[in-house]
Design a protein that fits this description.
Helices cover 50% and strands 11% of the residues. The protein has 274 residues and is an alpha+beta fold. It has a 5-stranded mixed beta sheet. The longest helix has 35 residues, at 102-136.
Length: 274
């Protein structure tokens, strides 16, 4: 009877398949390392993600777990007294300092002063030219002139322009307004504003229920005369009635009331904001 052949004993060490598997894992690892080395990391997006996690999960710089020294946030209200100090340390104090920076305030103030000076210089130059034109027309006693950083103002007495309680121009006023129109055509490069003013004596007529309506009608009468007798663009001329609310003299005297009844024409300079 034949004897069964004895099988060879397994070789010592790891099974053969494990060596193949290990080689495969090494190759895969090298493959992914190669892919990672060829890729690029967006540093900005990485910082945004890190900041998001930091805010969401209260992850502090350098691994800190508490606002102050010693106690953890999990201890609750015990650290609320230190919250403001922590916020200041993270930039709040710096932001407040920047908002109150005296250097920035002084720079802004200096820029505003420079602009104001340039506006005033332009108004002064315009006033000189307008004043010369008024003198050449012989109307120094009929028109008062003054200027600010925004405009040159011509003031015409109401008694010269209108009868009491009326908004119809006097015949002698038309000659004066004709000369004013020539000046406006020659020197106005920006907005012109016509304002009507009255004294404080009440008026209550069928046509003008109050001084507001009367002053507005007088400003409108001057507006119509100017656009009909000049080539000025009506879109560049504003008119308004100011009533009795902007007096320049005492309304308790006849002389003061006469001064308050007036029409003002403002010639704005090119740097003004209207």
């Amino acid at each position: 009877m034949a004897r069964k052949k004895k099988e060879d004993a397994p070789a010592p060490g790891s099974p053969a398949w494990m060596a193949t598997f290990s080689d495969l894992m090494n190759l895969l690892l090298c493959f992914f390392v190669l892919l990672f080395s060829m890729s690029s990391v967006d540093a900005k997006k990485f910082d945004e993600v890190a900041a998001s996690f930091s805010q969401t999960f209260s992850v502090f710089t350098a691994g800190a777990l508490s606002i102050g020294d010693g106690l953890l946030i999990s201890n609750g209200v015990s650290q609320l007294n230190e919250l403001d100090e922590y916020i200041n340390s993270t930039g709040k104090a710096q932001e407040e300092t920047e908002e109150q920076d005296p250097l920035a305030d002084s720079t802004l103030e200096g820029a505003l002063e420079t602009v104001e000076g340039e506006m005033l210089a332009e108004s002064e130059e315009l006033a000189e030219r307008v004043g010369e034109a008024i003198s050449e027309a012989g109307m120094d006693e009929l028109i008062e002139m003054e200027y600010t950083s925004q405009y040159v103002q011509l003031t015409l007495n109401g008694a010269l322009l209108f009868q009491s309680g009326s908004a119809e121009l006097n015949p002698e006023a038309e000659e004066v307004l004709t000369q004013v129109g020539i000046i406006l055509e020659r020197y106005s490069e920006s907005i012109i504003e016509i304002e009507g003013h009255t004294d404080s004596v009440p008026i209550n007529s069928a046509m003008y229920p109050s001084n507001n309506e009367l002053s507005d009608a007088r400003a409108l009468a001057v507006f119509y005369f100017i656009i009909e007798n000049t080539n000025l663009d009506p879109a560049m001329i504003k008119h308004s009635g100011r009533g009795e609310y902007c007096p320049i003299a005492d309304n308790s005297t006849a002389e003061g009331r006469a001064l308050n009844r007036r029409v003002e024409i403002k010639i704005y300079n090119t740097l003004s904001t209207f």
